[in-house]
């Protein structure tokens, strides 16, 4: 599997990858001029040791590349993992790259995330961020209608601006931003992906980005099952 649908219109696609769990092992063993040709129990023990003891540089030799299509509110939460991409141990630069589609250059039909009536959540009782329980269907249905109406108005103004000859990079100002889908490539080391997963799979992470994190986990575990499991266990304490 290399493609997982997320939310109403979004998805995560595994585009490419470099290496395997064996890559991690051989990166660690090169210090002793040793190399394994296939993963053994001894190699798995080495991966466990590396993760447990925080010897993380070998995990940065294994790389995964994803294409993500998600609402802007998810995209901007995700982006901070690239902004702060020097690894948290202070061990140097990470292998992270990010390239995002731009409405300065394209005018493809905008797509917006619209929660259904039974998907709107209440504000939490004891926190300034996050969300609580699902609100009543009646209230949710009201806000779905309100959002659709808001999107329609923005689209009309956007299309009119383009028709009037306004450049795409300014016409996009009329589009409701946070729910608009954007597309990007994310290339990251196994260590970086594990760090992202541990934070965005937590119960208090925003549900929408949790859904994307679950998709990333399913895809990357098919390539680096031992490394991902061990890094997540280590970060989870």
From TrEMBL:
SUPFAM superfamilies: Thymidylate synthase-complementing protein Thy1. Pfam families: Thy1. CDD domains: ThyX (cd20175). It comes from the Bacteria. Its EC number is 2.1.1.148. This is FAD-dependent thymidylate synthase.
């Amino acid at each position: 599997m290399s493609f997982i649908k997320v939310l109403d219109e979004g998805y995560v696609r595994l585009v490419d990858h470099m290496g395997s769990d064996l890559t991690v092992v051989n990166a660690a063993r090169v210090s002793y001029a040793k190399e394994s040709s296939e993963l053994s129990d001894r190699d798995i023990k080495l991966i466990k040791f590396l993760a447990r003891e925080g010897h993380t540089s070998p995990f940065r030799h294994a790389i995964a590349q994803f294409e993500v299509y998600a609402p802007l509110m998810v995209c901007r939460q995700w982006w901070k993992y690239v902004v702060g991409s020097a690894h948290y141990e202070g061990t140097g630069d990470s292998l992270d790259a990010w390239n995002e589609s731009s409405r300065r250059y394209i005018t493809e039909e905008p797509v917006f995330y619209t929660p259904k009536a039974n998907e709107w959540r209440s504000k939490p009782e004891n926190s300034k961020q996050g969300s609580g329980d699902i609100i009543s269907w009646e209230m949710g249905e009201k806000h779905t209608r309100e959002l659709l109406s808001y999107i329609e108005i923005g689209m009309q103004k956007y299309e009119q601006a383009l028709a009037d000859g306004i450049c795409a990079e300014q016409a996009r100002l009329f589009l409701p931003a946070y729910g608009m889908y954007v597309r990007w490539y994310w290339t990251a080391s196994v260590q970086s992906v594990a760090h992202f997963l541990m934070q965005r799979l937590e119960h208090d992470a925003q549900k929408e980005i949790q859904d994307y994190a679950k998709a990333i986990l399913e895809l990357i575990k098919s390539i680096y099952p031992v490394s991902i499991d061990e890094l997540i266990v280590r970060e989870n304490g």
